[in-house]
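Lab meeting prep.
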Amino acid sequence: MSRDAFNAYCAGLGPVTHVVQWGGADVWKIGGKVFAIAGWNDGRDAYTFKAGDVAFDVLADQPGIRPAPYLASRGLKWLQVHDDPGLSDEQLKEHVVMSFDMVVAGLSKKKRYELGFES
């Protein structure tokens, strides 16, 4: 997946915000919390997302995927697709949606309501 396609996909997920930080990385947030990052791989494109326990354990050692630099070293379950074969575009999209959903679930009820996820 190209970086432009990744960014367009993240932008379409809902009331998200986008900032460029951390050395030119595209950082995607919902409710002020990060759910996906494009960039952050020594100037080459890489895609970083939050993962559940099982996904982290299964994918962390797969070719082209690694625990996300900085985030995983702090005990957080984040993965980075940094090289081939990594994940297919569809698999990457699925993991970004799961990351988005995990971050939304971790927001306060008030914040979820403000963003339209609670009625």
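Slide two material, second protein:
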Amino acid sequence: MRLALAGAILVALTVLLPNAAKAQFGLRGGPLGVARFAVGHVIGLSRLRHARMAMRGGRYRSAALRSQDPRGERGQPANPYVLRAALTAQAALSGWHGGRRPQGWWRHPDGSYGWIGPVFWPFAHDDLTTAVIFGDTTSLSLYGYGDIYAAIFAPYAAPELAAYTAPQGRRARRVPSAEMVCDSSDTGGLPVDRIAATVQPNEMQRTALDELASAWTSARDAIRASCPAQAPMTAAERLDVMQTRLDAMIKASNALAAPLAKFVDLLDDGQKAKLDSLARERQAALASAQRKDAPAASACDPNYDPRYDVQAQRQYEQLVQQQWPASDIAGTLKLDDTGRARLDVLQDTTLRTLETLSSCPMKAETTPQARLAAVKARLQTMQQVVSGVADALDDFEADLSDEQKAGFEAIGPKRGT
């Protein structure tokens, strides 16, 4: 079991971060956070096989190109993780070489994608709902280093990326527009009927619940409005797209705070316990799944220290050996000593996000208000991290010629093939 688990982790890392390049073993703060990232990703691997099976189904493939919500199709609710993996994979790969390659190093461990063409975090609003109401931060926690890495080294060539916002000819029939991706991904909203059935609200409470639902819909629309109208063609533009999306999610969190507190405060203790049972049920299901994968679950234990885990050390070494194509960048761009030093700073700044943004699910808070605050804190941390990487990228590109910048942008699509 341990050997199989280690192999699965290395496969996941190979998918996410290919190509060998030199990297120091001791990132700032030590290997603790990075090793947790490496081992923690295996939690999502148990869903990956099911996601791949779903991707083979024509019903899920075609769902990615339709604007309606396929979750209620045929009256059977789909597994949300399977649906996400299938819907995002079809949309993400359709613009990349026509979707002929069912893979991608910018894929999340659960089989879904942090980027669909020019769109970052396609299930942003649904992830907020799942984290706040159901206390499940699994999908939210997977956003981090890999998505920043994909923003810098986009796997799409310029024509492939542009197809999502300006479809042309035959390609237009198979590449969903960025607007369609945004409209079709966040369709869940607040589960009003389920909440009402659980807490049995009185008239005043029902009014507050309706107000909360309205705020939830407005938050979804605000996040959708952050969908890019034009394809970001450079790493700097893609990092800006990330910051815009994160800013919209933070503002949505702020807008939800007051109506959420109003509704919860109107509930009596029994009703609050029933509302919290929605989160407890989801957390129990997640805990049951993690117990089947004990080594991966232990990696997310705050008392776990991989410095004393030989297997985790080897996994970390494998990770850092597969990092940035530093030699390729330096050789292609013909960097001088100053350029190499700035590239080192950019690489180090980005690698440190592995520790800052752990992929382990966040601590389970006991109330919806506390969970909303925790989600907002995570988003703010991610926004700060992306801003820091954007600054480092700006410094790196400050003295590059247009030809060098073009060479840098071409590295990602070349590696993606």
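Talking points for slide two:
Confidence is low (pLDDT under 50) at residues 1-78.
Strands lie at 115-116, 119-120.
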